[in-house]
C-alpha cells in the first residue's frame, strides 16, 4: 500500500485530502452536533450537489468552461445555501428546522434539473455522490488544504466564543458577544468543510463524517476537550480504514468510511454498556 | 449616597400591539439585594432583557453604571445567570471547570486566549459557591441546584459588580432553596455584589433579600423588604392579579 501511495499521485492526493478532512470535519462537527445543527450539514451537502451538477453542465455546454473545477461552484453553492438557511431560520423564528427541508429540496431540485438537461456525466457524478479514491486531483488537494487552513485559523481565533455560543446562546448574547456574526461565520466555515469533504466521502455521505465520529466520542468523553480529541481520532481512523479498504476492494470510499464510522460508534456503545455493567456488578 | 448601578427612567416597551412594560422607574444601588417579583406575563423577562441590553425599550432611558446603556461596554461587570431550563443543553459534554472558565469570555476578549492562572480563578469562583469539589464532574450529572451554583460561579469568575438572576430557583428542589438564597446573601454581604433576581415566587421575598420591586406591567411597589411585609393581602392581590398567600421558607424548612 505504501509503495502504491509513493508511486501514484492520485493516491497521494486521496490520502492527503482524506487525512486532512478526517481532522477538520469532526473538529467542526463537534460544534455542529452540540448546537443541534446536524441536519444542516445534510441540507448543505445537497446544495453543494446543485453547484457541482451546475458546473458539470456548464463545462459540457460551454467549451471555455470545460476545465472549470466543479468544486468551485460547489463551494459557492454551499456557502450561499448556508446564508439562505440563516435567513430562513430568522424568518421562521418559531419553526427554525423548516429551513433545512426548504434548502435541501431546493438543492436536490436544482441538481435534478441540471442532471436531466445534461448528457453523459453520470460517472463523474457518481464519484461526487459517493466519493472516489482515484478522482481527487492535485487541484482538489490544494482546495482542501486551503479550507483546512481557514477552519483551523477560525477555530483557534473563536474557540472560546464558539464554546459559549454552543453551550448557552442566551448567556452568550447577554455577555455582549457578537453572537449573530459568529454564528454566520460558523455556518460559512461549515459550508466550506462540506464542500471540501465531498470529493472523498461524497455528497450523500459527507454529513456522516461530521456527525458519526462525534456521536461515538460523546458516549465516552468526560469533557469538551476529550470530545474533540476522540472525535478527531475516530474521524482519522474511519478515513484511513475506509480509504485503504476502498482501494483494495475497488469500491466508493464514502461507503467504507461511513461503515467504519458506524463500527466505531457501535464499539463505543458496547464499551460503555460493559463499563456500566461492570460498575453495577461491583 | 450609594452609587446607582442600574437606572431605568420612564421605560416603556411594546410587543406589536401588546404593552409589556409601562412607566418603569427603577433605581438599583450598589449593595442592594433586590427581588423583582410578579406573576407570569408581568414583564419580568422583558425588563431583564432591557437591563441586559438585549432589547431596546420602545420609550425611556436606561443607565448602567451611570452611563447610557448604548455607551456601556464593560459587560463583564454584569454577571448574568439565565433560567437554567430555557438555555442549557443537559447532554453537553463539558466539565464544570470548562463551563465556569467560559464566564471569562468577554473579559478576555476576542482573539485572546484564557490567562495562564485560569485554573486558580475557576477554583476560587467554585469555592465561593461551595462547589470546588465538582470541578471535573460533567455538568449534566449535577442536580438542578448544583447546576445553578455552577452558573453563578461562571458569572462570578469575571468579578462582576452586579449579579442578575432569572428565576434562579426553577428546577431547584424546595429543600435546597433556602441554602441557595443564603449563598446569594453571603455573596451580597461578604463580596459586596449587588444582586437582582427575578421570580414569580412571592415566597422568595421572605428570604434574606433587602429590597423588593413588585411588577405587573408597571412597578406597583419598590422599597425595603420589611415595608412590603406590611402590605395588606388586598394590596398584594391588586398587584398580583389573584389571591396571594405569603409563606415563610424558614418555618417551612424547619417544620
Automatic annotation (TrEMBL), chain A:
<dbReference type="GO" id="GO:0055085">
    <property type="term" value="P:transmembrane transport"/>
</dbReference>
<feature type="transmembrane region" description="Helical">
    <location>
        <begin position="64"/>
        <end position="86"/>
    </location>
</feature>
<keyword id="KW-0813">Transport</keyword>
<keyword id="KW-1133">Transmembrane helix</keyword>
<feature type="transmembrane region" description="Helical">
    <location>
        <begin position="98"/>
        <end position="121"/>
    </location>
</feature>
<dbReference type="InterPro" id="IPR037294">
    <property type="entry name" value="ABC_BtuC-like"/>
</dbReference>
<feature type="transmembrane region" description="Helical">
    <location>
        <begin position="141"/>
        <end position="165"/>
    </location>
</feature>
<dbReference type="Pfam" id="PF00950">
    <property type="entry name" value="ABC-3"/>
</dbReference>
<keyword id="KW-0472">Membrane</keyword>
<dbReference type="InterPro" id="IPR001626">
    <property type="entry name" value="ABC_TroCD"/>
</dbReference>
<feature type="transmembrane region" description="Helical">
    <location>
        <begin position="14"/>
        <end position="34"/>
    </location>
</feature>
<comment type="similarity">
    <text>Belongs to the ABC-3 integral membrane protein family.</text>
</comment>
<dbReference type="GO" id="GO:0010043">
    <property type="term" value="P:response to zinc ion"/>
</dbReference>
<keyword id="KW-0812">Transmembrane</keyword>
<feature type="transmembrane region" description="Helical">
    <location>
        <begin position="227"/>
        <end position="248"/>
    </location>
</feature>
<feature type="transmembrane region" description="Helical">
    <location>
        <begin position="254"/>
        <end position="271"/>
    </location>
</feature>
<dbReference type="GO" id="GO:0043190">
    <property type="term" value="C:ATP-binding cassette (ABC) transporter complex"/>
</dbReference>
<protein>
    <submittedName>
        <fullName>Zinc transport system permease protein</fullName>
    </submittedName>
</protein>
Automatic annotation (TrEMBL), chain B:
<protein>
    <submittedName>
        <fullName>Zinc transport system ATP-binding protein</fullName>
    </submittedName>
</protein>
<keyword id="KW-0547">Nucleotide-binding</keyword>
<dbReference type="InterPro" id="IPR050153">
    <property type="entry name" value="Metal_Ion_Import_ABC"/>
</dbReference>
<dbReference type="InterPro" id="IPR017871">
    <property type="entry name" value="ABC_transporter-like_CS"/>
</dbReference>
<dbReference type="InterPro" id="IPR027417">
    <property type="entry name" value="P-loop_NTPase"/>
</dbReference>
<keyword id="KW-0813">Transport</keyword>
<comment type="similarity">
    <text>Belongs to the ABC transporter superfamily.</text>
</comment>
<dbReference type="Pfam" id="PF00005">
    <property type="entry name" value="ABC_tran"/>
</dbReference>
<dbReference type="InterPro" id="IPR003439">
    <property type="entry name" value="ABC_transporter-like_ATP-bd"/>
</dbReference>
<dbReference type="GO" id="GO:0005524">
    <property type="term" value="F:ATP binding"/>
</dbReference>
<dbReference type="InterPro" id="IPR003593">
    <property type="entry name" value="AAA+_ATPase"/>
</dbReference>
<dbReference type="GO" id="GO:0016887">
    <property type="term" value="F:ATP hydrolysis activity"/>
</dbReference>
<feature type="domain" description="ABC transporter">
    <location>
        <begin position="6"/>
        <end position="241"/>
    </location>
</feature>
<keyword id="KW-0067">ATP-binding</keyword>
Amino acid at each position: 500500500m505504501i509503495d502504491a501511495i509513493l508511486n501514484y499521485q492520485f493516491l497521494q492526493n486521496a490520502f492527503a485530502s482524506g487525512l486532512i478532512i478526517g481532522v477538520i470535519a469532526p473538529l467542526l462537527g463537534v460544534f455542529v452536533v452540540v448546537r443541534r445543527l446536524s441536519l444542516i450539514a445534510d441540507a448543505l451537502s445537497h446544495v453543494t450537489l446543485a453547484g457541482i451538477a451546475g458546473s458539470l453542465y456548464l463545462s459540457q455546454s460551454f467549451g471555455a468552461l470545460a476545465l472549470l473545477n466543479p468544486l468551485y461552484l460547489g463551494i459557492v453553492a454551499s456557502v450561499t445555501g448556508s446564508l439562505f438557511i440563516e435567513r430562513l431560520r430568522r424568518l421562521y423564528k418559531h419553526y427554525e428546522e423548516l429551513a433545512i427541508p426548504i434548502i435541501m429540496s431546493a438543492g436536490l431540485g436544482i441538481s435534478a434539473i441540471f442532471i436531466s438537461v445534461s448528457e453523459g456525466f453520470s460517472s463523474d457524478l457518481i464519484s461526487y455522490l459517493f466519493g472516489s479514491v482515484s478522482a481527487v486531483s492535485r487541484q482538489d488537494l490544494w482546495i482542501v488544504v486551503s479550507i483546512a487552513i481557514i477552519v483551523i485559523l477560525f477555530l483557534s481565533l473563536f474557540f472560546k466564543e464558539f464554546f459559549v455560543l454552543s453551550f448557552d446562546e442566551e448567556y452568550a448574547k447577554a455577555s455582549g458577544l457578537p453572537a449573530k456574526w459568529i454564528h454566520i461565520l460558523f455556518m460559512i466555515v461549515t459550508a466550506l468543510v462540506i464542500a471540501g469533504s465531498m470529493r472523498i466521502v461524497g455528497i450523500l455521505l459527507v454529513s456522516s463524517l461530521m456527525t458519526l465520529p462525534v456521536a461515538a466520542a460523546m458516549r465516552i468523553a468526560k469533557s469538551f476537550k476529550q470530545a474533540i480529541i476522540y472525535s478527531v481520532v475516530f474521524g482519522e481512523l474511519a478515513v484511513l480504514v475506509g480509504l485503504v479498504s476502498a482501494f483494495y476492494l475497488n469500491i466508493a470510499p464514502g461507503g467504507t468510511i461511513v461503515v467504519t464510522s458506524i463500527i466505531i460508534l457501535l464499539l463505543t456503545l458496547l464499551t460503555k454498556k460493559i463499563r456500566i455493567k461492570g460498575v453495577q456488578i461491583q | 449616597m450609594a452609587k446607582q448601578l442600574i437606572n431605568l427612567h420612564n421605560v416603556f416597551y411594546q410587543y406589536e400591539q401588546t404593552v409589556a412594560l409601562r412607566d418603569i422607574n427603577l433605581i438599583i444601588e450598589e449593595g442592594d439585594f433586590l427581588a423583582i417579583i410578579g406573576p407570569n406575563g408581568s414583564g419580568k423577562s422583558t425588563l431583564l432583557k432591557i437591563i441586559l441590553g438585549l432589547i431596546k425599550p420602545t420609550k425611556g432611558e436606561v443607565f448602567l453604571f451611570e452611563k447610557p446603556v448604548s455607551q456601556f461596554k464593560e459587560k463583564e461587570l454584569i454577571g448574568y445567570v439565565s433560567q437554567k431550563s430555557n438555555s442549557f443543553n443537559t447532554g453537553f459534554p463539558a466539565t464544570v471547570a470548562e463551563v465556569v472558565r467560559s464566564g471569562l469570555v468577554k473579559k478576555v476578549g476576542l482573539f485572546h486566549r484564557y490567562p495562564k492562572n485560569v485554573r486558580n480563578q475557576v477554583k476560587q469562583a467554585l469555592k465561593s459557591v461551595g462547589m470546588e469539589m465538582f470541578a471535573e464532574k460533567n455538568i449534566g450529572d449535577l442536580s438542578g441546584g448544583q447546576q445553578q451554583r455552577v452558573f453563578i460561579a461562571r458569572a462570578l469568575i469575571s468579578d462582576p459588580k452586579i449579579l442578575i438572576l432569572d428565576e434562579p430557583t426553577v428546577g431547584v428542589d424546595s429543600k435546597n432553596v433556602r441554602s441557595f438564597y443564603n449563598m446569594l446573601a453571603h455573596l451580597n454581604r461578604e463580596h459586596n455584589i449587588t444582586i437582582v433576581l427575578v421570580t414569580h415566587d412571592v415566597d422568595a421575598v421572605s428570604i434574606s433579600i433587602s429590597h423588593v420591586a413588585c411588577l405587573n406591567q408597571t412597578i406597583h411597589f419598590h422599597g425595603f423588604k420589611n415595608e412590603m411585609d406590611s402590605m395588606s393581602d388586598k394590596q398584594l392581590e391588586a398587584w398580583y392579579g389573584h389571591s396571594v398567600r405569603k409563606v415563610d421558607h424558614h418555618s417551612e424548612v424547619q417544620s
